[in-house]
Amino acid sequence: MDEVPSVESPAGLAATVEKPKSWRRQLAATLKRIGSTLGLDAGAANALARVTADGLALERTTLALERNYLASERTLMAWVRTALSMISFGFTIGKLGQALQDDRLSGLLGRSSFSVNNMAYLLVIIGTFALVGANLQHHIRVHALRALGFPRQFSIAAPAAMLLAVVGGFAFTALVLKL
Questions:
Q1: Contact (CB, 8 A) for 123 and 86
Q2: CA distance 179 to 174
Q3: Buried (b) or exposed (e) across 133-162, using 16+ Cβ within 10 A?
C-alpha cells in the first residue's frame, strides 16, 4: 500500500504517483492510517478523521471571523485619524481666521471668494459626520459578525470615535460662537 518506488526506475515512479488529493482527503487518509496504526477499527478511524476535520474547519472559521473583526477595528481607527485631522485643521483654520481678521480668500482665478470661517466650518462638519458614519458602519459590521457566531468583545475604538465626534461638535460650537 505504501510502497516506495525505486529511484532507478522513472517509469515505475510515474506509475505509482497518485493524483493530488484535496487537503481534506489527505488529512482523512492520514488520520485513518494513524487510527489503524493505533489499532482502531475502520469506523473509529473514520470518526477520528471526521472530528478532526470538523475541528479544523471550526478553528479556521473562528480565525476568519477574528480577522474580519480586527480589520473592522483598523478601518474605524483609520477613520478616527482622518476625521480628527479634518476637525483639528478646521478648528485651527477657523481660529487663525478669527485672529487675523482677514476672512475672505479669492477662489480659482479670482472669480469667487469664500470665507476662511466657512472653510473651517466645512472641515469640522465633514470630520464629525465622517466619524459618526464610520462608527455606525463599524457597529453594523460587528453586529453581522456576531450573527455569524463571533463572540461579543469590547471595542476601544468605538467609544473613542464617539467621544471624538462629541469633541468635533464642541469644536464646531466654539467656532460658531467665536469662543
A1: yes
A2: 5
A3: ebbeebeebbeebeeeebeeeebebbebbe
Query: What stretches of the chain show up as alpha helix (H) in DSSP?
Result: 10-16, 23-37, 42-100, 116-147, 157-177
- Work out whether strand 104-106 and strand 113-115 pair parallel, antiparallel, or are unpaired: antiparallel
Only one residue has cell 480668500, namely: 105
Residue listed under C-alpha cell 471526521: 50
Q: pTM, whole model, 2 decimals?
A: 0.59
- Cell readout for 157 is 475604538
Whether residue 90 contacts residue 124, with contact meaning beta carbons closer than 8 Å, is answered with: yes
Q: How far apart are CA 165 and CA 163, in angstroms?
A: 5
122 exposure class (CB count in 10 Å sphere: 0-12, 13-18, 19+) = middle
DSSP 113: E
Yes or no: say if 75 and 142 are a contact pair by the CB < 8 Å rule: no
Dmax over Cα atoms in the chain, in whole Å?
92
State the pLDDT at residue 9: 46
Mean pLDDT for the stretch of residues 55-68: 76
Give the residues across from 104 on adjacent strands. Answer: 115
Please name the amino acid found at residue 65. L
